[in-house]
Amino acid sequence: MSFYFDCFEHRKPELPLKYSPIVESIWQYLAVIALTMGAWYLWWRWDSSLNMEALWYAIPLAFAETAAYIGLMLFVFNLWKVEDYPQQPAPETLKDVLDTLHGDDRPLSIDVFFPTYDEDPELVRLSIIDARKITYTHPIDINIYVLDDGKRQAMEIVAAEESARYITRNDNTGFKAGNLRNAMEQSSGDFIVICDADTRPFPTILENTLGYFRDPDVAWVQTPQWFYDLPNGKMLPDLLEKYLSTPGKLLGKGIEKIIGPVSIGDDPFVNDPKMFYDIIQRRRNWVNASFCCGAGSIHRRDAVMEAALKCYADNIEQQVTDKSKDLRKITGEKNLDDGLVSMVRHNIAHDEEFTPYRFHVSEDIYTSLMLHSDQGRNWKSVMHPAVESKMLSPQDLLSWSVQRFKYAGGTLDIARNDNPVFRKGLSMGQRIMYASTVWSYLGGIWNALFLIAPLVYLFTAIAPVSAYTADFFIHILPFLIAMELAFMMGTWGIAGYRSKASYLSFFPVNLSAIWTVIKGEQIKFKVTPKDRQEGNFLHLVWPQATVIGLTVLGLLYASVQYFLLGNHDYSLGGILINIFWGLNNILALSGIVLAALWQPE
Prior knowledge:
Blueprint: H1 2-7, H2 21-49, H3 55-78, E1 108-116, H4 121-131, E2 140-148, H5 153-161, E3 165-167, H6 175-185, E4 191-194, E5 200-201, E6 218-222, E7 234-235, H7 236-259, E8 263-264, H8 274-281, E9 297-300, H9 301-331, H10 338-351, H11 363-372, E10 380-383, E11 389-390, H12 397-417, H13 428-441, H14 443-460, H15 470-490, H16 497-505, H17 507-518, H18 542-564, H19 572-597
Parallel strand pairs: 1-2, 1-4, 2-3, 6-10
Antiparallel strand pairs: 4-9, 5-11, 6-9, 7-8
Helix pairs in contact: 2-3, 2-15, 3-13, 3-14, 4-5, 9-10, 12-17, 14-17, 14-18, 14-19, 16-19, 18-19
């Protein structure tokens, strides 16, 4: 652990983006223009531009563009405006956070949970030590629990040494969600702070978040996850000097004179979550749709239990209704004996799992969905903008892939079995926000088409449009320019290209998750490794490397055919647009291929 203290302990998180009503207004204005231009372009694509002699190619690409445009509309809705939840003073007693004037004046009781399975006990020790440093402006009762599904004596010893309570169980039913349920049965805090094994809370986490719970409808508060161990990378002159000696260093300095400082190898897996938390999640507050992401979240125990009990009762009654229908068909009776119905209910209740946190690989977002849709209650979620804890990032491509597959597969599995778009109790805004999340994970389908499409033209000269004429550029360029300008303003303060490139290069993991869910296979819970996995990770990026290789060959082949051999099956407009398209794909995919080769210092 001394390595982390030596290299990263001094790091501080960036402050949340400062809200600017002027920037927001410009973003909204440009977004409307971009959507209008996009609709105009798509109308032209389907109505006037399809290559009728190659519909096998033209229609799938037009479908991909349409699907991407739907994603664009959902994303614009997500990013429409910033509406931070008003922060209130830290509550003094339990009475301040109850929906009653007759609450208890006792100090608040907080449970801090650290679920763990196979993480290094010394890593968990660091988290416990930081949790013990949590401060509060009023008297408060804080209890720290280590929830060890690994049943390790070494972990029990660490918990005892750090004055934390140790909880384990006989089986690992429900994985993390089952672990949390088991801990809730043996604790009684008014609020629960959910941490991962490597989550190191800041002393201010409670002082800065419990005030939100003065609103008795606030069920949970999510704080941004911040990875404090992202690699610094090397400055370009130093990197070139390593391979080219002094001339390389001079070349690097010359390049930086022109374009500014260049760092290579910083955050190779695009792990920095600032775009997700400070832009995407934070801007879901305005329709009460920011969802729980697990680590770094604070939950009102009563909200979780109340929603779970309702869901438990509803599931039992639905099963009783279904079973009663079956029995009436078998017996031919219109009305069943009350004693028989009571026995059926008792048997079903005995077998039904009570799950405060849903037994699912994505238990965090599923529990959010359950609370948001709790009919009869207006449970609210809050995305707190400031970082209140620090965590470790995936340090190799295998760990990154395990994590991203779990995110994608878990979300798509929820959409398949309990689609939030059709779930009762959600507002229209909440449905759209959840739909945006699901739709983004379907993007692997059209992203794959966007990567393949230029290859068809480069190798065959067959175009997806009737012709690459001025009419094509008149329709597509205003849309692309308006979209880039809009999102430059919409994500003002955070560079967006690396996130877009990462999303495109994510397509093999995305497709694998989609196929797994379509087959009905269970998305298995795998703990994201906290230590760097050794070995060669090129086998994980062969799809991206193949696309890059084929695109390079296609660019060379088409250029030779048109510029040297005078093959007029190609057109200058077609060559230019597909060369630009191909180069963009190469640039976007190269990051993940280089990440497979990346080695930490």
